[in-house]
Structures are given as C-alpha cells and as structure tokens.
Design brief:
Layout lengths: L1 E6 L9 E7 L6 E2 L4 E6 L3 E6 L4 E6 L6 E3 L3 E7 L3 H10 L2 E10 L16 E5 L21 E2 L1 H10 L13 E2 L1 H13 L20 H16 L2 E9 L1 H12 L9 H12 L8 E4 L4 E4 L5 E3 L1 E3 L2 E3 L2 E2 L7 H16 L13 E3 L20 E15 L2 E15 L5 H16 L8
Parallel strand pairs: 11-12, 16-20, 20-21
Antiparallel strand pairs: 1-8, 2-4, 2-7, 3-6, 4-5, 5-9, 6-8, 9-10, 13-22, 14-15, 16-19, 17-18, 21-22
Helix pairs in contact: 6-7, 6-8
Length: 430
C-alpha cells in the first residue's frame, strides 16, 4: 500500500489559505476517483474538492472551520501500489486534478439583501501510480450528494424528509421552496410532518464559511465606519402607475419591479453628489470618487447575504437593468456568480421587498461610503390641499460614512431622488 498526499491546490486567486466549510468523507471511508471530499472557502468562492485517486481515507487536515494553507496536505489516502514507486512518480510526473467553483462569497463585505456552469479550473496535484485492482462484486452506487444550505438540511431533518427524495425545481440545490413542494405532494400521499409545536433541544452551531465572513465584515464595517442614517417619505403613486403601464406593454421583456426605476433615479442624481458614489481607503486616507456607477445589489441566498454588482448601471435602460437584476439574483441563489461579478461596487442598494418595514438602518458595504434602502410601499390617506386622497407611500433610507459624507449632502441627495421618483416622467427625459 502507498500513501497519497492530496495537497490543497492553488485555485488561481492569489490566496494563501482556505477554510474547511464541509467534509464529505471521514477517516476510514472508501473514496473513488472524482468523488467529492470537501468544500473549501476563500474570500471569493466556495470550491468543491474532488479526490484524484481511489483508496481509503486515513487522515484529514482538520475540522470544519479550520484554515488550510495552499500546498499543504488536505487529505491522506491509502492507495494500492508500492510506496516507493508512487513517491518516485509523484516527484517526476505531477498529475492534474479538477475543481469547480460552486458557490460564491463576497469580496470584502457581505450584505443585508446567475447562468452557465463555469469551466473547470485545472490545478496541480500528486498523481496515482496505478488504479486499484478490480473487484469481483459490483459495489452499490453511492448515494447522491445533495446540495442544500445548513438551514434547509436542519429543516428537512426536523420534518423527517430524506433530501435525496426531493427534486429541486431549478438547478441542483434543494431550497426551502422545494421542501414546501415536497410536503404538499407528500400530504396527498398520506404523509404527516412532525407536530410543529414540539419542543426542540438546544443546539450549538459553529460560525463558519459565509456566515463567518458576514460576521467579520459587518463587525469591521460598524467598528471602522461612523454610520448615520437619513430617512424620508416618498409618494410613489404616479411611479407605480407608470410601472404598471410599462409592464402591460412589455412584450417578452422581464417584468419591472420598483428596483430598476430606483436605479435609474440613483444613476441620474449621483453626478451632482459624487461624494456618495465613492470608495474610501481609510488606511491610505484616500477617497476615490467613481465616474461610473457600479451598483451593488444586496441579495438573500440560502448560503447567506451576498452582493453581486451591476457594472456601468448608468448606461443601462430600465429593461436592461431588469434583465441584469434577474440574472444576477438567480446566479447568486444558485451559487453560480463569477468572481468578477462580485466586488468593485461604488454604491449599494438593499431591499427587503414586501418584508420591508417602516424604515431600515442598513450597514455600509465597506469600502463604499453609502447604501440606499427602499422600504415597503403602503397605501395611506393623505391631504392634497383640502382633499383627502389615497396615496402609495414609501420610506427611503440612506446610510452614509460620516467621515466622507455630511448630513446635509445625504439629505440633499434624497431630496433629489424624491423629485425624480415623485415625477417619473423626469426619469425618461434627456
């Protein structure tokens, strides 16, 4: 028997280490070539690591949450063959393994609230001298590895659902909506979920992976940035009427939400307020005011909060923005964002949609200096002169870095936004 040291490869991002976020094998397990063995997370992506050989796992590099340096041993696998020969071949003819990016984290800050499969990245790893000798009996096919977030797995376990029996509606990742669909189907077959009010035991969950990145980045943002938030009320009655008219004649184009119209207003007003469309390098003491709007779009996913970026938003019309918003949101939730679609943003928008409350105080996506948060639209009676009329109202929040942006500037910017949103014909005027 020979020992095969599978070393953590360089995945081409210039990183020095990666975090273990999941093991799919344990010591003593038999693994086959190309079988998934671990998920490793960098600042840019979560990467599935696959075994380049077949054999028995005899050593793992650490526990979930530990950091592993690039080039150090991740897994030791016992393979068939002479140890001396395997070592000699490993030194002379290094082989290749293949990894695929499957889930994307954030560049520097994850935030409160895409789609072809990337090409495999070739990386160097140690070779195999020989394949294991065939056995007479045919082994049973290994169980399908189901992609799902920890929250989905926990819920499935509570409900007694085997995730392997749940077919995802799209992609290969099981989500809460898929569990709901399965429960509706199972109810027709006589299945009954455990009683929802039953007490559960306390549990401790290690903060790892994207959740740890979010915790670290949010703490750094609040620790280093003196935030202030300004909120104003906007009458979007006319804007909602225009949106309904546009959707009624959209043809095959994507359905418009409020977000594309808001982004158009943001892009039209930012040139007069360049201090808001900026990035602050506090270590160098330099503020870079961007001439382009690279707009971050905070998106909720099963893995956590992430911020894909709409590049050159100022050059896109409402239909192009609607299509890009849909594409990026779907890619984020399917863990198929590309590294270049993350980071480099100059200002961010975050929205809870229909869950939005009266007002929010969003945390800035460092090193940006401002973040805008539209809140829920509500209908209320308002006075127009002596008349009482029904109006659709929305509060708009903006959080700013007080080292760079003054309160007067933030309030003036929101007033400029308010003028465009309350008079939507101006959004389409040259």
């Amino acid at each position: 028997m020979a020992r095969f040291n599978f070393r953590l490869p360089d995945i081409g991002e210039g990183i020095s280490e990666a975090e273990i976020v999941a093991w799919h094998v344990k010591v003593g397990d038999r693994v086959e070539e190309d079988q998934q063995i671990a998920d490793m997370m960098t600042d840019k992506a979560t990467v599935e690591m696959e075994s380049p050989v077949s054999g028995t796992v005899i050593e793992l590099a650490g526990e979930v949450g530990d950091q592993v340096s690039i080039g150090s041993t991740l897994v030791v696998i016992e393979i068939e063959g002479e140890e001396e020969a395997a070592s000699e071949i490993a030194a002379e003819t290094p082989g290749e393994a293949v990894i695929e990016p499957v889930a994307v984290a954030v560049e520097s800050v994850s935030h409160p609230e895409l789609s072809t499969k990337p090409e495999p990245l070739p990386v160097r790893a140690e070779p195999v001298e020989a394949r294991p000798a065939p056995v007479e009996s045919v082994p049973a096919e290994p169980a399908r590895h189901v992609l799902a977030s920890p929250a989905v797995r926990a819920r499935a376990q509570d409900l007694g659902i085997d995730l392997a029996q749940v077919k995802p509606a799209e992609g290969d990742r099981v989500r809460h909506a898929d569990l709901d669909a399965y429960l509706r189907y199972a109810a027709g077959q006589g299945y009954h979920a455990p009683h929802a009010s039953r007490a559960r035991a306390d549990e401790q969950i290690k903060v790892i992976g994207m959740r740890r990145r979010i915790a670290e980045n949010m703490a750094a943002s609040k620790r280093n940035i003196p935030h202030f938030t300004y909120v104003d009320e906007i009458d979007v009655t006319e804007l909602e009427r225009v949106r309904a008219d546009l959707n009624a004649s959209r043809g095959g184009r994507p359905k418009l939400t409020m977000l594309p119209l808001l982004i158009v207003a943001i892009c039209r007003t930012l040139p007069d307020f360049p201090m808001l469309n900026a990035r602050y390098d506090d270590e160098a003491g330099v503020v870079t005011r961007s001439g382009r709007v690279h707009l971050g779009m905070a998106t909720q996913t099963d893995a956590g909060l992430t911020v894909p970026v709409i590049r050159d938003a100022q050059d896109k019309n409402i239909w192009q923005l609607a299509a890009e918003i849909t594409r990026l949101a779907e890619a984020a939730r399917a863990s198929k964002l590309k590294p270049e679609e993350l980071g480099g943003g100059t200002i961010t928008v975050t929205s809870l949609g229909p869950l939005g409350g009266i007002a929010t105080t969003p945390v800035i996506n460092r090193p940006e200096v401002a973040i805008i948060g539209p809140n829920k639209i509500v209908e209320r009676p308002v006075f127009q002169g002596d008349d009482l009329v029904r109006a659709k109202l929305m509060n708009l929040s903006i959080s700013c870095d007080h080292r760079v942006v003054d309160g007067w500037d933030a309030a003036s910017y929101v007033q400029a936004l308010k003028k465009l949103l309350e008079t939507p014909v101006l959004l389409f005027a040259d």
